[in-house]
Amino acid sequence: MEINNYTDKQLEGLREKYYEKQERYNKMYNEATERNQKILLYIEREMLRRSINKDLNEIINKMDITE
Known about the structure:
This protein is an all-alpha fold. About 80% of the residues lie in helices and about 0% in strands. It is built from 1 helix and no strands. The longest helix is centred in the middle third of the chain and has 55 residues.
């Protein structure tokens, strides 16, 4: 069978190349998604840390420290 002058063997080769490219794309996408999740977690943790430090500094500044 031929489709647009491609033989079955040529079509199979094209199909294999497509699946290989699709697999590489999926792997890269998953790695990028995982990396982005790690970055977002770091940002959230850093924002929380800064917020806690700010709150603690406000409490310390309000305390009357006399000896």
